[in-house]
Design brief:
Length: about 250
Amino acid sequence: MTTERPPHLPPQLDLNQLPQHVAIIMDGNGRWARKRFMARYQGHRNAVKAVRTTVEAAAELHLTALTLYAFSTENWKRPQEEVSVLMNLFSEYLQKELGTLTRNNIRFQIIGDRSRLPNFIHDPLDNTLSATKNNTGMTLNLAVNYGGRAEIVRGVQLLVQQVQKDSIPVDQIDEAYFSQFLYTSDIPDPELLIRTSGEQRISNFLLWQAAYAEFYFTETLWPDFTRDEFYQALLAYQQRHRRLGGV
């Protein structure tokens, strides 16, 4: 897709070879805080700037979708104080960043099981979903209370219900049919998955969708993730030869 070229882009970045969908595991907030002798919640608070910067950079490049892993189903095991900070930050983000989403014509979605989220989050969440639903630019997926295995189990449950309702022959169920029961049914699968902080695993994130994603791992801790770091990940992606099982 050809876009008008922003002047600050690296000259070697080819706008015609960008991934449609980028997914990011935002990791390293706690280590960022510990290195500065701060409480862990300070790392989470400082991470919001990196979110805003990355969202704006992705929207400027006219990507189809950006998915950010914010809170996993396993993160409930963390200390209650830290979980409370994360939930409050989520509520604050929804309220404070609505202008950023609107200004950039971004459609906001949440992927994950919202039923366990605190009550105080539901109103700002519904407001943001409603206010951005008709935006026609990039889709921003925020994965909250999300787990890849849980998503697949949920998809199987929905599939079985549909098959029972419509008496669909088993041989008509293929990958494309199943994919419509996933949270990401209306967007392409991610071609690039970024993880910050040096860890090299996907931690139950987009297990189905990331089957053919290119992985990019960086030592940068998430609060330090910049626009230039995002461009470096895109440049690395453009050096890959995506054969998708071919030769």
